């Protein structure tokens, strides 16, 4: 199993957020006001003490006026196609780490491609009891395709059980959240589209 957390850290999200915030001449408090996130949380994210969940990263990208793709690309990238072979992904496997960000870990499936309108991820969801604090909402749409395990998907007042081969497409402005259930963590391909 890949250590997705290490790969997230390699993206240097905190560093990218701080640099862009400083380029925009925004204080942490001003970014907090623009995103609705707390100043201490933003400070922890910038200092790589907290890995931001995707919904939080989307709020930060809106506040900084960039697409979420900005955080998954490198400045020198000019490619129009990204192909990652299974063996390349497997060669980056590391010791498993169970430190999840708000119940799930994510890894970009198209790193390095600039100016994308959608962002595909490999997501692993933690086994835990559902709590309404797991609800997120943000502008855009999402698509999830279950690869393995069982996922309990909460959408507003609805609850759906998703199994391997199941998929779901939804308006992500409605409150939504997920937890793995059963014997193992669920894994899925998730695609986020955010209206810029």
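Sequence proposed for the structure above (196 residues):
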């Amino acid at each position: 199993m890949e250590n997705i957390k290490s790969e997230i850290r390699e993206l240097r999200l905190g560093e990218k957020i701080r640099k862009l915030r400083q380029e925009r001449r925004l204080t942490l408090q001003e970014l907090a006001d623009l995103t609705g996130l707390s100043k201490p949380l933003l400070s922890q994210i910038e200092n790589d003490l907290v890995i931001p969940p995707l919904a939080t990263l989307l709020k930060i990208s809106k506040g900084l006026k960039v697409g979420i793709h900005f955080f998954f690309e490198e400045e020198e990238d000019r490619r129009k196609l990204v192909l990652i072979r299974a063996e390349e992904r497997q060669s980056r496997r590391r010791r498993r780490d169970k430190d999840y960000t708000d119940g799930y870990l994510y890894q970009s499936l198209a790193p390095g491609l600039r100016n994308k309108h959608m962002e595909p991820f490999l997501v692993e969801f933690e086994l835990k009891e559902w709590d309404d604090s797991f609800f997120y909402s943000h502008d855009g749409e999402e698509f999830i395709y279950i690869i393995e395990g069982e996922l309990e998907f909460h959408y507003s007042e609805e609850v759906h059980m998703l199994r391997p081969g199941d998929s779901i497409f939804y308006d992500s402005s409605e409150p939504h959240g997920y937890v793995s259930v059963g014997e193992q963590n669920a894994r899925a391909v998730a695609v986020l589209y955010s209206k810029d």
